[in-house]
Amino acid sequence: MKLPFAESYKIKMVETIRRSTRNEREKWMKEAYYNLFNLRSEYVFIDLLTDSGTGAMSDKQWSAMMLGDESYAGSSSYLILKDVIKNLFGFNDYLPTHQGRAAENVLFSALVKAGDIVPGNSHFDTTKGHIEFRNARTIDCTIDEAFDTTISHPFKGNLDLNKLEEVFKKYPIEKIPVIIVTITNNTSGGQPVSMENIKAVKAMAEKYGTKVFIDSARFAENAYFIKTREKGYEHKTIKEIVKELFSYADGMTMSSKKDAIVNMGGFIGFSDRKLYEKCSVFNIMFEGFVTYGGMSGRDINALAQGLDEGTEFEYLETRVKQVEYLGDKLNEYNIPILQPTGGHAIFVDAKKFFPHLPKEEYVAQTLGVELYLEGGIRGVEVGTLLADRDPDTRENRYPKLELLRLAIPRRVYTNNHMDYIAAALSNVYERRNDIKHGLKILTEAPIMRHFTVEMDRI
Ligand code: F0G
Fold first, then answer.
1. Which end of the chain has the smaller Cβ count within 10 Å, N or C?
2. What is the mean pLDDT of residues 8-27?
């Protein structure tokens, strides 16, 4: 008999989670104003809100924490991470930050000014937020295939080089300080970018005279897809692929809460010493001295260890196969999900799930609420709420895709949990025609409204 696939780890510590009744969930959801961010986590049975900071650290990470050096300046933890970053990504300099958006804040303080244009592949919401906050604008150059959930393309996160070149033709180069390549492309489905594409983006950046920074939160999952899908990389190790990938970038911002499997942390990697020096000033102001920048020494140690483990093939295979397992189940139940499944999450196509609901009724958020009521599962809306209002016209932006993201934390849930999620979603799908109305907004914040919005049923 062929041996089946099995996880590349065993479990040493567990955390109890609690089921609830439908009546309890109805009450809690109402009290939370139909915003899943407002729910207490103990009211959630399976939490798929995010894969960010929610992973389970390994025994080696926990033991590395005991060796953290908490010195204000020149700590050994800082130097351990410096070595890991140099070996893995090839960058000589780095600045620790407390998380990914802090890295964006520091970098963009030095790099982006009012009136600038920052092209990229579906910038993540905090990236876009930090750019728009500086009265600069983003331009999404993701390939068109990414906006059709049914097309199965191996690198749906890719940038369309024609769209990118249009940006360079339309705007003066002084207004384009950087291209941001997000790997994997979270907003359009956790989809990878190919090595070939990154290489071409770098070539274009050099041709016109600007920089490339990689928003690297899920860089290791991206490297796994390159290894398993791109010709010429099947025999390379993940670490070799990562090294080549980052050789096409001038630097990186990192939310370590994802592929470095820590609960908190981030950093910026630089190849340009001058830019590093410029950013150091902002790092000291916003984050902390350059050798700790918002992180404790023990957290830096766990991060260094996590970067090493997170770029091992066996770990990544276990990780991505679990997401695929859930995707296969949902396909079996004919639930409309984004194809192919990405690295960190399943994205349910809410417009196809509820074709009868109008776009003004926050369709993906409605699905998120229904899935919670069904099984105590918490996902997150990646749709009209997240897309927010246009900063100029203040009108609602209606994105091409209206998705419910089910992000799978790393090394946390078993495949029994995946079966439970699939069954709950299938039950909602079976009664989809009984759900006649969506949601309306009661109150919202002027920027990044999805975190605090208060809603009610229509
Ligand atoms: N870039 C990407 C691609 C991200 O997915 C995130 C966070 C960030 C930057 C910001 O990093 O949270 O450490 O400040 N994404 C989380 C998510 C929040 O749920 O996808 P952060």
1. N
2. 96
Q: Does domain 59-309 have CATH number 3.40.640.10?
A: yes
Tell me whether strands 211-215 and 251-255 are parallel, antiparallel or unpaired. Answer: parallel
Cis before 340? omega within 30:
yes
Atom of ligand 1 nearest to the CA of 182: 3
Average pLDDT over residues 361-367: 98
- Buried/exposed 92-112: b ≥16 CB within 10 Å, e otherwise: ebbbbbbbbbbbbbbbbbbbb
Residue 19 has a pLDDT of 96
171 noted as active-site residue: no
Q: Which atom of ligand 1 is nearest to the CA of 256?
A: 13
CATH architecture of the domain formed by 22-51+313-457: Alpha-Beta Complex (3.90)
Return the beta strands (E) in 78-157 as ranges.
93-97, 117-120, 137-140
β 178-182/211-215 pair status: parallel
pLDDT tens digit sequence for 71-120:
999 999 999 999 999 999 999 999 999 999 999 999 999 999 999 999 99
pLDDT of 400 reads 87
Q: Is 52 touching ligand 1 by the criterion CB < 6 Å?
A: yes
Q: Do domains 22-51+313-457 and 59-309 have the same CATH topology?
A: no
- Annotation marks residue 224 as catalytic: no
Among the options 91, 124, 225, 354, which is catalytic? 124
Ligand 1 contact, 341 CB (< 6 A): no
**Could you tell me the residue ranges of all domains in the chain?**
22-51+313-457, 59-309
User: Which pLDDT band, with edges at 50, 70 and 90, does 244 fall under?
Assistant: very high
CA 116/CA 171 separation, integer angstroms:
9
Ligand 1 centroid to 234 CA: how many Å?
29
